[in-house]
Amino acid sequence: MKTYSIALLPGDGVGKPVTEAAWDVLQAVAKASDFALEGTTFPWSCEFYKQTGAMMPADGIETLRRFDAILLGAVGWPAEVPDSVSLHGLLLPIRKAFAQYANIRPHRLLTGVSGPLKSDDFDVLCIRENTEGEYSGAGGRVHQGTADEVAIETSIFTRKGVERILRFGFEQARVRRGKLASVTKSNAQKHTMVFWDEITRELAAEYPDVEVASYHIDAMAARMVMAPETLDVVVASNLFGDILTDLGAAIQGGLGFAASANINPDRSAPSMFEPVHGSAPDIAHLGIANPIAAIWSGAMMLAHLGESDAAARIMVAIEATTKAGIGAIPGRDKTETIAKAVLERLL
Length: 347
Ligand code: NAD
Ligand code: IPM
Ligand code: MN
Description:
It comes from Rhizobium azibense. The structure is a single chain. By secondary structure, this protein is α/β, with parallel strands linked by helices. The protein has 2 domains: 196 residues, 3-Layer(aba) Sandwich (Isopropylmalate Dehydrogenase), CATH 3.40.718.10; 136 residues, Isopropylmalate Dehydrogenase, CATH 3.40.718.10. Helices cover 40% and strands 23% of the residues. The protein contains 12 helices and 12 strands. The chain has a 10-stranded mixed β-sheet with strand order 2-1-3-12-11-4-5-10-8-9, with helices on both faces. Strands 6-7 form a two-stranded antiparallel ribbon. Strand 6 and strand 7 form a beta hairpin. It starts with a strand and ends with a helix. The mean pLDDT is 98. The site of nicotinamide-adenine-dinucleotide has 24 residues, from helix 4.
């Protein structure tokens, strides 16, 4: 029997219960299929940082490299560890080290979930550049603590990086509804964003079958609320994609519904699957985190591993759950109730 080795990184706050729920569902679907999942849990988190002084051991990346995939909950507990330390110590280095340059985030309404928009008719696939751009980490501060203090955070966009994420988007558009929206802010940022627009135009010539449009990020934010049905694949830089996908989560009913996949398309290293949301410190003690985003991310993991039937079965079970009203209203049901309902509906 085929066995996949999965690294589990529950992380902080609600990351823990939602990862547990996703893992239960994944195990159940594996049991009913012809493959097995072998999980190894790593306690890397802000708690781990407090005990050891690091978010993961020095050889953490090398440890993760031998797994077929990584399932992550959420990282960050800002009351105790600054986000600039925790995220740069665990989540962001994994995305970068494993060249998980395509962060795929689907936004559509699950059956039975009401979003805040007038129209329920949208199915947007956000593809976020995940390894460079505004998240390059280049910069610094000078004259610290003085009236002349300056802080610089430099965005780095490489031709290789921009080309590969746009190409990934074009390929996705080809197998979806044939439309690609490229998002920049080239009216204000004249180096990086003009560069991105140029590469979009160059690639558009290679994909005459894909209808391409470029939007400014501000206009795209409005469009996602006013007319999301006009969108198919949306490709954006690291920061813009981050912001747009919380907006995407909002239009699909909340952060508890938004799944994501950090993909290494070359398969030269493991890909990582995680909900879009964070550790949700405001609700972490209440037991009401919605595990659907994490379970959906687990389905994306199975699809990536080639277990598409099992992935589809999870999606059917999720939608049967929300259709029955369970987990459909943020904050109403317990994490375990929703997870149990999904488990019961696995065909
Ligand atoms: P957040 O996503 O944790 O929470 C935003 C809002 O969404 C909160 O009101 C929260 O209660 C709600 N929410 C989140 N997940 C939910 C779920 N599963 N079910 C129901 N409601 C949910 O964002 P934040 O508050 O800005 O960040 C908290 C911490 O998480 C910070 O340390 C931040 O840096 C980190 N973070 C980590 C990731 C990640 O690991 N991928 C993502 C985002 C934020
Ligand atoms: C996400 C998160 C992260 C990001 C943070 C926690 C660094 O918001 O996965 O969307 O911005 O990538
Ligand atoms: Mn985010």
